[in-house]
Amino acid sequence: MQQILRAENVEKHFGELKAVAGVSFDVYAEECFGILGPNGAGKSTLITCLYGASSRDAGRLSIFELDPQINGRRLRARMGIVPQDNCLDESMNVYENMMHFAAFVGVKRAERMNRVDTLLKFMSIDHKKEATVKQLSGGMQRRLVFARALLSEPELIILDEPTTGLDPAVRHLIWQKITELKLRSGTTILTTHYMDEAERLCDRLMIMDKGKIAALGSPSSLIREHCPGYVASFDLHTELADKIKSKLASSAEFKIIEDQTGIHIRAPQIESLVQLGKDLQAEARLIRPSNLEDVFLTITGKDLSADA
Amino acid sequence: MLESLKLSLLITSKHWAVYRKSFLSNILPIVTDPVFYLFSIGMGVGAYVTDLGGHQYVSYIAPGLIASAALWTSFFETSYNFYIRLSYDGSYKAMMTTPIGPREIIFGELLWVCFKGAGMCLGVCLVMFALLRQFDFVFLFSITLLGSLLGVACGALGLLATSFVKNINQFQTIYALLISPLFFFSGTFFPISDLPPTVQKIAFLNPLYYGIEIAQALYWKKDVADILRLFLPLLILSGLFLGFFAYRRIYRLLYK
Questions:
Q1: Residue contact A92–B18, C-beta within 8 A
Q2: Is B89 within 8 Å of A90 when comparing Cβ atoms?
Q3: What does the pLDDT look like over A18-64, one tens digit per residue?
Q4: Matching CATH topology for A3-223 and A229-289?
């Protein structure tokens, strides 16, 4: 596979804080590369370095063999970027927002109307052309930002938390569009703090915590490597917790993970968890295959919804 | 470079598209303020000061009021409006996802105040001519050009001020302690040469003062060549000087 992005020891500091503290990774053509991490992990900061909207303090970065710090303008002409905030112009309607952007990304005057119409249709907001941004719902605004990002017919699409704060229906629509774009051979980089989003969309994932890479691999390989098997969750109350701890203290088969939502026990086999429940005379609230959230919890000792 | 200029012009045209949407409320204060000055101070003080350097008081203050329109419009643009685009509505963040970079944003801004300064001086001049029942095409044309230079100098000053503020309320301080003195010590209402020497020296650093000296010479058709030879280079240099520092500081705000 053709490598289109290479990052080597990239760092970005804000005063004393190292928001990005030395990350190295590659992105290959046609893959969807995910950056997963809690708020404040450095995902967005890293993303703005990728498209040259902020400088970096150390390390090397090349995308399409160009350095975003030097060739930002040329590079952004080949990218489609959905920033974390919508940054739409509220004084303008949907159509005007698109037309001005089309000019910015260099769409020829004669083609502009056509391209704008096609993209509004693609994101199913063509019926809102005349609406002002304020009249749009959150989901509609996000769809407009997607349409806007596609104006440049990008070779690389960068999505910074594409579905944060959206309702499930809109999330599914956005996921569907991302998948369609992926099939059109676009390379995608996306950040998220939703593990289901990462699992569903990403071919490879980089888990970030405190500005560093905590783990890197495909979703299934990360789960296999860090926390294979199943997880049973029990409600948290002291008596049961003590019982579980004393019973499983020296067990190699079971792993105990505690957080605010309850006590979780992981085991390679689902049967042993069912048996454990019987032994404890307590019913598990949920038994499920382990997922990326467990990977994150295992690696960093905290859950994804926590701030870094 | 050409690509950069093209992008800057696109930014300017977007500003214009936004501005046009509430055109009347945008231009109203810039046009009405000088009219109120003309009728209140011009007529009120004019009842006592009947001759100032050989002019009626109303016609003494008219050129300064016209040229000052460039200060108000461009400074407002690069202070409040720029700050809102920078910190609140994400305009520049959005632009930075396109080939536009910080350089184009700053040049786009300065081009915009250049046009605004010219347009406002032209507009205020037409209103003044109508009120004073006179017309002078050469003055109208030259004040428009002067407005563009003043727009850049005062707009750059606004950008520079913006690079220092921590929140939007601080602009009130800047208006009170910087813009008001620039306006009152610009020579619009009285000759700077009648002030104490120290104050004169400070006023000599005021880019609006350069513009108003030129506007008055053009309006009165008096010593035009001499005034232009001294003040036109000063005005252009002050624009370049302020623009240079504004560029450096704003660049760092846009591209951290």
A1: yes
A2: yes
A3: 999 999 999 999 999 999 988 889 999 999 999 999 999 999 999 99
A4: no
Measured distance CA(A82)–CA(A84) in Å, rounded: 7
Question: What's the CATH fold of domain A3-223?
Answer: Rossmann fold (3.40.50)
Q: State the CATH architecture for A229-289.
A: 2-Layer Sandwich (3.30)
Under 8 Å between Cβ of B128 and B38: yes
Distance CA A158, CA B4 (A): 24
What digits encode the pLDDT tens for the residues B79-124?
999 999 999 989 999 999 999 999 999 999 999 999 999 999 999 9
Q: Taking the domains of chain A in order of start, what are their residue ranges? A: 3-223, 229-289
* CA pair distance B216, B234, nearest whole angstrom: 16
With CB atoms and an 8 Å threshold, state whether A87 touches B93.
yes
B236 is written with which tokens?
């252009």
Can you tell me the distance from the alpha carbon of A232 to that of A298, in angstroms, rounded to the nearest whole number?
15
Span A117-160, pLDDT tens digits: 999 999 999 999 999 999 999 999 999 999 999 999 999 999 99
Interface test with A, best of B7, B11, B89, B97 (most A CBs within 10 A): B97
Structure tokens at A84: 């974390």
Are the C-beta atoms of B156 and B239 separated by less than 8 Å? yes
